[in-house]
Each structure stands twice: as C-alpha cells, then as structure tokens.
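Rotation project, supervised by the postdoc (A.L.). Task for the rotation student: set up a whole-complex structure prediction and record inputs and outputs verbatim in this book. Inputs entered:
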Amino acid sequence: MDIHAPHQEQHLESSDMIRDIVIGMSDGLTVPFALAAGLSGAVNSSGIVVTAGIAEIVAGSIAMGLGGFLAGRTEADHYTSELRREYEEVERVPEREKEEVKEVFAEFGLSKKLQDEIAEELAKDKDKWVDFMMRYELGLEKPAAGRATRSAITIGISYIIGGIIPLSPYFFVADSTRALYYSCVITMICLFIFGYFKSKVTGQPAISGAFKVLVIGALAAGAAFAMAKLIDGK
Amino acid sequence: MDIHAPHQEQHLESSDMIRDIVIGMSDGLTVPFALAAGLSGAVNSSGIVVTAGIAEIVAGSIAMGLGGFLAGRTEADHYTSELRREYEEVERVPEREKEEVKEVFAEFGLSKKLQDEIAEELAKDKDKWVDFMMRYELGLEKPAAGRATRSAITIGISYIIGGIIPLSPYFFVADSTRALYYSCVITMICLFIFGYFKSKVTGQPAISGAFKVLVIGALAAGAAFAMAKLIDGK
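Outputs recorded:
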C-alpha cells in the first residue's frame, strides 16, 4: 500500500481545516449571539448592540486567530526541538535509546528476543529510528508546513462569519428587543444547520449533534440575557 | 520501568488541566478586555461597559465550558466506538489486521521476517493487539475518565477569572475612558504574567512567550477600540 501515507496525510490536513472552521464558527455563532441577547435585555437601542457586537467580533477573531497561529507555531517549534534531541540521543546514548524502543514493545507483551531484534534492526537506519521514537515514544506527528498561518486565517474568518449572522438583524431593526427576536430565529436555525454538518464531518450522530450545538447557544444567550437584566435591575 | 506508564498518565492528566486553564484564561483575559476597550471608545458610561462585559463573560464561559465538555465527550465516544470496531475486526478478519500491523513496521524499514514475527506474537493477546492498533495504527489514546466534566469546569472558571480582571476598573470608575486606562495597565500586567507562566509550563522561552501573549491582547483591544470608534463616527 504505497498510497497509504500520503492519503492519510491529506486526510489529516483537511480534518485540520475542518477542525479550525468548527472552532471558529461554534464560538462565533455563540458568543456574539449571547452578547447581543444580553445587551438587548439591558439597553433599548440596537446601535449599542451593533457597536458592542462588532467590537466583540473583531476582538474574538483576532484573539482566536492569533491564538491559533501561535499554537501552530509552538507545535512546530516543539516538534523541531524534540527531533533535534532524538537525533542527538541516538548518536550519544544509542544503548539507552534501544532500551526505550524495547520498552515500547514490552508494554504490548512481545518476547524479550523479539524486542531485541526490533531494536537492533530499527537502529540500522537512523532516520527511521528517530521517526519511530518521535511517533511512538513521544507521540508527536510532523506538523504540516504553513499550518499555523492557514489555521489562524481559517479560525479568524470562521469566527467573523459566525458572528455576523446573529448581529445582522440589529443593523436593520432599530428597536433592540424586536431585533433580538429575529436574531434568535436566524441564529437558532444556523446553529442547528452548523451542528448538523459539524456532526456529519466528525462522524457523530447528526441530529443529536445539531441539538447539542443549539442547546449550548441557547443556554449561553439565555444566561447572558438574564445576567444583563439582573445587573441593570430591570 | 514499572512506574513508566502511570507516571506518564499522571503527567498527561495534569497537562490536560494546564491546557484547559490556558485555553480559558487566554481568551478570558483577551476578549472581555478588548470588548471593554472597544465600548469605552464608543460610550462614555462605565455602566454599559460593565453590562456588556458581564454578558460576554457569562456567554463566553458557558460557550467555552460546554464546548470543552462536548469535545471531551465526543473524544470519549469516538474512542469507545473505534475500540469496539477493532475488537470486532481482530475476531472477524484477523489476517487483514495482521497485515495492518506489518504495514506499521514496514514503514520503519523492518525486514519482512521480523514484521511477520511481530504480527504473530502480538496476535496471541487480543487485548494488547487491540491496544496496539488503537495507539499506533489509529493514534488514539484512552481518554481519562471524567475528563469532559473536569475540562468544562476548568475552562469555564478560568475564563471567568480572566474576564473579571480587565472589567474590574469599570466597577469603580464611572468615566469609561478613565476606567480604560486602569484596565489597560492591570490587564497588560496580567497578560504578561500569564504569558510568562504559560510559556514556563509548556516549555517555551518564557520572556518571548510573555510578550507574544501581551501583543495578542493589545492588538485585539486596539482593533476593537478603533473599530468601535469608526462605527460610532466619533
């Protein structure tokens, strides 16, 4: 199976992208929606809701996008430094590294004889030996090149798209209470659709997944609304 | 090394907790800070900033906490369903599963003879065979029990603690522009300290890590402030 590895990598890459869209959009649909709902309970003008909502979307997309970028960079840096350390160790203390290979297989109950043979044979090719240590001793996969930048942009844009949806009625309806009704209807529909597709692509039951996403959004918005009413003593 | 496995597991568990604190607190310190800064540029009363800020913190902690809970549950469900499938496959198509074991080792350049021996010996103990497939073919680790609930609570509380810090000056200073000055000073200091410790525990260079976190917070707040000013046309 020669195509196994590239196929798997491609699969991982597109699932990284889907994961980033899901991360950005689930927070984007939920938090600006809940913030707008909360403010609608406390102020009567859609103007303030729009200002606060846009400020939140800008802040959230930068925080999440840059956060994603740095997380990706940190992952790549970590991989590189561990890789260098493993190469150094197979040069400097090869016997100890062989012991570590044997430990991996001892855990699965392989015989001492087989453990020794595996360690000896693996040690013949340093690149593959180090690759083995990286993946099976340390559990580290080589991060895709350019992953951090792509991740930042995907998360940031998904957050903005998600956030504009619940905010859109407030652009057109001056009375914030009326705008909230429209916002609830539109956002609930979008949360359900988003939850449905999110569950589909992650291999979960789609309808129950859609309801889960819907309930989180509704709970967050309801709690923010109640809290804002409470603070304002209305 | 008998203590190897439990030690590693404990290590993973505490690093899960630290990861959850980092997830909750970095967004908690950044987004409510930026939202408050944005609103301070558009309104003159700290009252609205406090209402919006609290609504955001409530919404954000619920969205992130419940999000963490569901992510943890999904991970656990996925593990369980894949585990069942692997057990079924080693019963139903053992030869194909043995081929998959061999493929893992073929990738590391082990000889055909050794591949066969490993596959045969691993197949003697079904539990260990399945465990091997789960970890090294599918790359899945058994999630810690109760992880989802712990994760939700840790992320939610970290978000609330992080969010209260930038908001606190607005409770005491009625003029939102003055409150913003205090908020900037307090939050910048906290972002730096948080970034420092975050980098320490994740093994990154601490000072440059602290500056990265600080810059994200400042950029998000600056952009939100500028955008809110722009919308309000002031």
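Student's summary: Chain A has one domain: 16-232.
Supervisor addendum: Chain A touches chain B through 72 residues (CB under 8 Å).
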